[in-house]
Amino acid sequence: MNSVQSTSSLTVAKFGGTSVADYQAMLRCANIIKNDDSNRLVVVSASSGVTNLLVRLSQKNVSVIEQKDIVENIRAIQVNITQHLSSDVEAKLNQEIDSLLDELTQHALTQLLQYSTRTGDAILAFGEQFSSRIFAQVLQSVDIPGEYFNVQQVMKTNSLYGKAVVDLNLLSEQCRQLLAPKLINQVIVTQGFIGQDSQGHTTTLGRGGSDYSAALLAEALNGSNLSIWTDVVGIFTTDPRITDQARAIKEISFGEAAEMATFGAKILHPATLIPAMRQNIPVFVGSSKEPEKGGTQIKQKVDSNPTYRSIALRREQTLVTVKSPAMLHASGFLAKVFGILAKHELSIDLITTSEISVALTFDNPSGSTQSLITNTVVAELEQLCEVSVEHGLSLVAVIGNGLTSAKGIGQSIFETINDVNIRLICHGASANNLCFLVNEDEANFVVEKLHNTLFA
What is the pTM for the complete model shown? Predict the structure, then answer.
C-alpha cells in the first residue's frame, strides 16, 4: 500500500469514549493536543455511554417509546458538553446535533419496521459523528485550529455490515488527495469505527474499531507516531479490575502487544497493531486523565523480554466440537468444515484435534446482537458430522517470551490452578502465548491466582 510522503512529524491521536465523555474530559484532551505540535489528526470514539444506547437502538423490536427515550438520553449527553462553549457555538452545534438526531430517529423507525444489519450500522455510526463535531469546536475554544472531517470520504469498505473490511489502497489514495493537504495548517478531527461502502451506505468496523481506524489512518498518512488515549495509565500485566496487584508495563514489543490485544486486553483493539507493525509506527498508550504519568510504549524492539509479560482474559467464548469417524485416516474432512465456516464469514480462534474430533473456539464480540454460531451454521455442519456447541466459557492467555522453549511453564501454570476444570488447552503454535478455556464463573479467580503466582 502506498502512503503519503510526510515532510514533518505526524502523530495521530485517538481518544476513547471516556476521554470525550464530557466537557472537562474533552478539555483535557484538547490540552494534550495543544502541548504537542505533531498532533495533527485526532480520531475520536463516541462519548461514553452513547454507543451502548445506540447498540440497544439498533436491535430488533425496540418500541417507539423506548426509541424516544434513547434519543433523548443521547441528546442529553451531547448538550451537556456543548453548554460549556460560547453561546453562538453552542447554538450551532445543538442545531447540528438535532438534525443528526432526526436522521437517527428515522433509522430507528426503519429498523423497527424492517430489521437489517445495514440499518444497524447506520444507527451505530452516529456516536462518533456527534463527538467529532463537538471536539473540533472544543479545540477551537483553546485556540487550536480544529476542523471536523467526515472519515467516510476516505475510509471505503466492503458491505460486510458490522465487521466491514477497509480497502487499504483506496484509503491511501483518498488520504493523499483529501486529508493530507488539510493537515498542514489545521488539526483535523475525525471518527473512528465507521466507513462507507461503494453504494454510499454507512458501515462499521466492529465494536472497538476506533483504535483500528486510527492505526489505518496513521499508516496511510505515513505517520510517525500513534497515540491511544484512554482512561488507564498504559497497558497492565492484567486487568487491574481483577487484581490490585496488576502493574503498568513501561514498554512492550509489537508481538507481545498483538498477543495481548488478540486475547482480550481491552486497552487495544485486536487489529490495531497490524497497520502500525506494517509501517513500523511506534504506538503509545496512556491516560487522558493523567497524561503526566506517561504510559506504555509499543515498538519493534524492547530492552526486556521476560518469560511472563501479562495475562489476558477474553469472555463470551463459544466452543464448537465436530466429531466424525470419517476423519480417521481421511483427507479433505477439515477442508469441508472450514469451507462451511468460511462461507459464513466465521473466523476460527483456537483449534485442537484428536483422531476423530476437532474442537474450535470462536470469539463472540461484546455487544454483538446475535449469536455467532447460528442454527444455519450448525445444520450445515451436521450434514458432515456430529456437532456440539458450548457457551459460557472464557479464554485465559498467558503471554510472554520463549514459552515453547522454557522448561516448567506448564507445571507453573497448571499446578497453580489445579482445582479448576480446564476445557481446552492450546500451546505450541506461538512462543508468545499459552491459552486455555475455563468456565466463565471461574475466570476472574483463575486470572488473579495465576497473576499472584507468576508475577510475585
Answer: 0.82
